Amino acid sequence: MPNQPEHTEEIQALRPEFLKEVRSAKRVVIGSHLNPDGDALGSSLACAMVLDQLGVKCEILCHHLPPTYLEFLPGMDRILQQPVHDDHDLALILDLESLDRLGTVRPWFEAAGRQIVIDHHVPHMEPGDLRIVDQAAPATAAILCDLFFGMEGVEITPEIADCLLVGILTDTGNFKFPNTTPHSLHLAGQLLESGANLPRISEEVYMSKAIAAVRLLGAAISSMETACNDRLAWSVLPYSLYEELGAKEEHTEGIVNELLSIETTDVAAIFRESKPGKFKISLRSRGDVDVAMAAREFGGGGHQKAAGLNVDGTQADVVGRVTGVLKRCLESS
Ligand code: 5GP
Ligand code: MN
Questions:
Q1: What number of CA atoms fall less than 13 Å from residue 253's CA on the CB side?
Q2: Domains along the chain with CATH numbers
Q3: Which one of 43, 95, 101 would you pick to mutate in the ligand 1 pocket, going by the greatest count of ligand atoms within 8 A of its CB?
Q4: Cα separation of 167 and 39, whole Å?
Q5: What is the C-alpha end-to-end distance of the chain, expressed in Å?
Q6: How far is the CA of 138 from the centre of ligand 2 (A)?
Q7: What distance in Å separates the CA atoms of residue 165 and residue 13, rounded to the nearest whole number?
């Protein structure tokens, strides 16, 4: 929700319970969602480093490998796709509203016995023995700042500050999206005071694009279609295009925002064909249009202004069905 104050005090009130859970754990498994972004990985790594300081053993699991633009994050080699141990007794689940978004690593999080969920999405299911969830927070990393700043036994090192700043920066679109609040900017300031290296982060995240990613963006823009007096804009990126350009899945990141940046656009959609006949759709909106509601019609979800879904079928069928729902949303808004 834009400009709704974050629940800093409620988060801080959960500190003793958080500490009690992690201190009594023998080994923690930390994880986040499929196709991890800056908030998912920044939050996971920051938590691992905080647990190190608290003397609690942990490992981080993720379904996918980290995208190249996040490989500079400190401790990235700790992100595993298979655990080394199988004796986890606490799961720390971050930036995730529904356990199926853990992907193939889900069984280790379920086997851990106890679960802590820290998140800022609209809850889909409500897993977790302890839930530190604030929908008004712009990023999971911002909730972690409220939790960790001033926590007994925890020092925000420059490495932890880098990870948390990447989470806030990427989830606010570099402080451009309406979820950018005074509090999130204040937290970013505190992270800089703790030694976060903003010029390095900006260079790595925003100024190191692969040429295939730029070619993919070009293809998306030149094949863009619109409807509803140009209020709806979408592009389809077929599987064959990725093969032709040598583009990777991660190169799709950010393209949907380019379509949303058009003067007339209220809803933007990118249809990425991840495997022949399998489409991952990213939705973005501005104004009152709720794209999470549209995504839920197809079993997806997310936030009011940023949501996603997966639909299988032929290109014409998938695009027709999804744009049909989006047109209806626009017509009723
Ligand atoms: P993106 O378009 O960046 O992949 O996803 C935007 C947001 O939509 C994510 O932060 C996440 O909340 C949500 N999202 C994306 N894909 C899915 C999905 O398949 N299922 C659900 N429930 N949410 C998704
Ligand atoms: Mn997030």
A1: 20
A2: 6-206 (3.90.1640.10), 211-332 (3.10.310.30)
A3: 101
A4: 4
A5: 17
A6: 7
A7: 23
183 φ, ψ (degrees, to nearest 5): -65, -40
Atom of ligand 1 nearest to the CA of 97: 22
Model confidence at 1: pLDDT above 80: no
Would you call 134 exposed, middle or buried from its count of C-beta atoms within 10 A (0-12, 13-18, 19+)?
Answer: buried
Task: Please list, in sequence order, all residues whose beta carbon lies within 8 angstroms of the beta carbon of residue 69, skipping any fewer than 6 positions away.
Answer: 204, 205, 208, 250, 253
* Strand 278-285 relative to strand 306-312, pairing: antiparallel
Question: Ligand 2 centroid to 140 CA: how many Å?
Answer: 5
pLDDT tens, residue by residue, 91-114: 999 999 889 999 999 999 999 999
Residue ranges around ligand 1 (CB below 6 Å)? 35, 98, 101, 121, 124, 282, 300-303, 306-310
Q: Are 216 and 241 in contact (CB under 8 A)?
A: yes
Answer yes or no: is pLDDT of 65 > 80: yes
* Residue given tokens 């950010």 in the structure block: 254
Distance CA 292, CA 287 (A): 13
